[in-house]
Amino acid sequence: MSTTPTPDPSAAAPDARAARALADAVREIEHHVAAAGWDAPVRVFALVRTQAALASEPGLAAQLDPDVLTAAQADDWHLTSVEQEGLPAAPDLEQLLAGLSWPAAVDGAAVTVERVVLPPGAEADLPDDPEAALVALLAHPARQDVRMAVGALRGGPAWCALRTRAHDSDDAVGQGPDLVPGLVEAVRATLD
Questions:
Q1: Average model confidence (pLDDT) for the chain?
Q2: Cα separation of 90 and 109, whole Å?
Q3: Residue pair 126/137 in contact by the 8 Å Cβ criterion
Q4: Count of alpha carbons within 13 Å of 125, Cβ hemisphere only?
């Protein structure tokens, strides 16, 4: 009888490990934010490689779950998310992200935001007046509330996780590298 050995995460190519670590981090962030419920503000997270963070801040080990420490020891691409508090005031998400920059020790960034979306073509029926359009959007019978969690690594991959209020369960979260391309590029720009 033979058994298949457990794959060693450090044996995978660095790009594949980075992409997997980012996908894991974005899923974890989305799950964390989902636990707080809907109608939440924009939240921003720095992503740092856990081994490097532990090397520079050994006291961090006491704050991390033992499973996280084990995962970080097994994979040098394991990421820890650090929620950013005291974000600068900005009139909208685009301005907020445009005003952010990260030190070299930050390997990536992630953001969560909620939006109301309509099916294709439904926006054409909205009034031109912004206030009237907002009222119509919020009253539209086909509207969907969507939470987007989007992360990107410095010079590397991106990952997105999307949850709708209508299908609010962990097993109904859509995921992929380019589900929200404009937001991916905005997050990526904070890392330049």
A1: 88
A2: 18
A3: yes
A4: 13
- Taking CA atoms, 94 is separated from 5, 6, 117, 153, 183, in Å, by 46, 43, 17, 19, 9
pTM of the predicted model as reported, rounded to 2 decimal places: 0.84
Torsion of CA 72, 78, 79, 80, to 10 degrees: -20
CA-CA-CA-CA torsion sign (179, 46, 146, 165): positive
Q: Quick check: 10 and 75 in contact, CB under 8 A?
A: yes
The H or E element spanning position 174 is strand 174-176
> Does 14 score more than 80 pLDDT?
no
- CA–CA gap between residue 40 and residue 149 (Å, rounded): 12
10 confidence band (pLDDT: 50, 70, 90) = very low
Other beta carbons within 10 angstroms of residue 117's beta carbon come to 16
